[in-house]
Amino acid sequence: MTGQTGFIGEIPPSQSTNPTWHMKWITLFLGLLLCGALAPADDALGSNPGRGILDPAGVPLADADQGAAAQPNIRGTHSGSFIYGRAYGQLAGKSVEFTVTIKQEPGSEDFTGVVQEPYSGFGVAHDGKLWADIRGTCRVEKGVIKIKYEKTYRYFEQPAVTYSGTLDPGTGTVAGKWLFLDEPDNNGTFELTGVRLK
Questions:
Q1: Which of 78, 84, 108, 127 could form a disulfide with 88 if both were Cys (CB 3.0 to 4.6 A apart)?
Q2: In terms of Cα–Cα distance, which of 137, 73, 133, 135 is closest to 105?
């Protein structure tokens, strides 16, 4: 007998009947299989490149690919309102309606926009309205669509106002809070309606 041909290599004649030697080869074979070294280059349909059984995080690759969420896009013109909080005394509970036009490139979480509010004696009006620029992000965190932006008024000086809220895709409504970061007690709530994902 000149030797036996194994799955991976040539078995030396002296080891052909040694159980310990066979166990080493079986262990090596299983180790290579689990690491993906023996995985086929493509699956049976030729659609999944051979990347082993698990990704580095230990997550099945097929599940990881299918779980990737598309970047939500909220571009468009939306109606909204904000309500003054308790720190505003006589204004507390008063609602101010506004319109916002948002620009957001497909695939990007960043957006910009322009806000128009009715003039009520506060700030400096232009064409009978208050104008503001916004810059923010729209991203998915743990399955929730979160929207955050800063609003900076035009034509007069005032610290930026920070808005943070969540979008309910079913109703198209964004609800959340606004505040001045340097004066967090000056805050309130806000809502945007008609926000449909693009």
A1: 84
A2: 73
> What pTM does this model have?
0.66
Instruction: Say if residue 34 is in the same domain as residue 91.
Output: no
Let me know whether 59 and 82 are in one domain. no
Residue 71 lies in a domain: no
Q: What is the pLDDT of residues 18-31, one digit of tens each?
A: 555 455 555 555 55
For the chain, percent helix, then strand, then coil, each to nearest 5? Answer: 15, 45, 40
Q: Is residue 20 part of a domain?
A: yes
In the numeric block, the tokens 């991976």 are attached to 8
CB 196 within 8 A of CB 76: yes
| Amino acid making up residue 167 | L
Partners of 180 in beta bridges: 183
